[in-house]
Design brief:
Number of strands: 2
Domain HTH dtxR-type: 1-63
Order of helices and strands: HHHEEHHHH
Largest sheet: 2 strands, antiparallel
Shape: elongated
GO molecular function, one term: manganese ion binding
Structural class: mainly alpha
Subcellular location: Cytoplasm
Radius of gyration: 18 Å
Subunit structure: Homodimer.
Helix content: over 70%
Protein name: HTH-type transcriptional regulator MntR
Strand content: 5-15%
Length: 139
């Protein structure tokens, strides 16, 4: 069982490895805006729980379990951003809102949001219809 904090670390490590090819404690600390000592403690916990393999001064790699969860967490984050954009949330609020809700939704809710995003993406006139409803409600 992962905590929201563990999920944030796994997601960030996954993203760093995908973009840079590696994830160092200093990179993780910078991207999460935390102290390197906090990262080291969490990385050691994630290593103990078999989400990654960590060797002091050598770096870390995600295990297959960590990679799978990291990929799913990134998907969840991206899907929620897409959903909030579709429903018309102001662009500058989307990231903060996703950070606030992503850990509080069940995977069943995420799947249903995915269905809704797909529904809107399959026919762009549906988004236009939603915008008309929103416009009418604002008047």
């Amino acid at each position: 069982m992962t905590t929201p904090s563990m999920e944030d670390y796994i997601e960030q490590i996954y993203l760093l490895i995908e973009t840079k090819g590696y994830a160092r404690v200093s990179d993780i600390a910078e991207s999460l805006n935390v102290h390197p000592s906090s990262v080291t403690k969490m990385v050691q916990k994630l290593d103990k729980d078999a989400y990654l393999k960590y060797e002091k001064y050598r770096g870390l790699i995600l295990t297959s379990k960590g990679h799978k969860i990291g990929k799913r967490l990134v998907y969840r984050h991206d899907l929620l951003e897409q959903f909030l954009e579709i429903i018309g949330v102001e662009q500058e609020k989307i990231y903060e809102d996703v950070e606030g809700i992503e850990h509080h939704l069940s995977w069943n809710s995420i799947d249903r949001i995915g269905d809704l995003v797909q529904f809107f993406e399959e026919d762009k006139t549906r988004i236009q219809g939603l915008r008309k409803v929103q416009q009418n409600n604002e008047e």
